[in-house]
UniProtKB/TrEMBL annotation:
It comes from Halalkalicoccus jeotgali (strain DSM 18796 / CECT 7217 / JCM 14584 / KCTC 4019 / B3). GO terms for cellular component: plasma membrane. It comes from the Archaea. This is ABC-2 type transporter. The chain crosses the membrane at residues 20-37, 57-79, 112-134, 140-161, 173-196, 259-278. Pfam families: ABC2_membrane_2 (PF12679). One of its GO terms (molecular function) is ABC-type transporter activity. Keywords: Membrane, Transmembrane, Transmembrane helix. PANTHER family: ABC TRANSPORTER PERMEASE, ABC TRANSPORTER PERMEASE PROTEIN NOSY-RELATED. Coiled coil: none annotated. The keyword Transmembrane applies.
Length: 285
């Protein structure tokens, strides 16, 4: 219960700040603009208005960029900020354990991200109905819940890094260094490994299964895979680029299968959080 108490306090502090309002406005603008652009693109392709799944496909990539930034901004200072200010010693002077503090911060800050996403996506739902005249609540609810799950993953990463470090500066460098790794360096590393193993920078048939698996590992592609598994839309997964044409040597590896996206998301959430807890339990404040 101590973790719940910390989470409630953390969430209430966020509600009273302007940060939650700013995040909510961002998500409202993001979803409404995305719904409008999606319908315009559908019109250019010959459809009168895209259906809910078409619009989800259009929103998935921007969401995989926007949500991590917001979640890491909220999460990286959760524990390190308390250490810098000295308030962490006061907090631990109450009947709270270090584990309570870390888990409470994760729950409270995930709640902040979730509220922002929910309000923003409700606005998007209204926009989709207004622009298309039709709406699939089940598909959109799945998309919303999995987007919240992506936010939870990055909050765990941010709080885990925050628990490992003594300063918010180091936590911020670590958090946004990970974003650079996932968004830029990961694909560069994949091309480098491909070059070392095949002598070519660009994949040529038959494409090695490890290459597709490696590209599927980061949280963003895992989010797309999970969405594709639930919505039965293979185009959301990295493997779909190669699967339909049978270009992958030996078939699609299990790591790149859509359902495995849930396993990867769980790993990206709980491994950094566990490492942060282990480190936080051993350090002197």
């Amino acid at each position: 219960m101590s973790a719940i108490a910390i989470a409630k306090k953390d969430f209430q502090d966020a509600v009273r700040s302007r940060g939650l309002i700013a995040l909510t406005v961002i998500f409202v603008l993001f979803t409404v603009a995305g719904a409008y652009i999606g319908t315009q693109v559908a019109g250019l392709l010959g459809d009168e208005a895209g259906d809910t799944l078409d619009l989800i496909i259009g929103l998935q990539t921007p969401a995989s960029f926007l949500v991590p930034i917001i979640a890491l901004l909220i999460g990286y200072g959760a524990v390190a900020g308390e250490r810098e200010s000295g308030s962490l010693k006061f907090l631990l002077g109450l009947p709270h354990t270090r584990q309570d503090v870390v888990l409470g911060k994760v729950l409270g800050r995930t709640g902040v991200v979730a509220v922002s996403i929910l309000i923003g996506f409700i606005a998007g739902m209204i926009a989709i109905f207004a622009f298309t005249g039709s709406f699939s609540p089940v598909e959109y609810a799945i998309f919303t819940l999995l987007t919240i799950a992506l936010g939870f993953v990055y909050v765990c990463i941010g709080v885990g890094l925050s628990a490992m470090t003594k300063s918010t500066t180091r936590a911020a460098v670590g958090a946004f260094g990970l974003l650079a790794l996932f968004w830029i360096l990961w694909s560069v590393l994949a091309q480098l490994l491909l070059y070392l193993t095949s002598g070519s920078v660009f994949p040529e048939p038959p494409i090695p299964g490890w290459y597709v698996a490696f590209l599927s590992l980061p949280p963003g592609p895992a989010y797309g895979s999970a969405l594709g598994a639930i919505l039965d839309e293979g185009g959301l997964a990295v493997a779909s680029t190669y699967e339909g044409q049978g270009l992958v040597e030996g078939g699609i590896p299990i790591v790149a299968e859509p359902w495995f996206g849930f396993v990867l998301l769980a790993a990206w959430a709980f491994v950094p959080l566990a490492l942060g807890l282990l480190r936080f339990d051993r350090v002197d404040l």
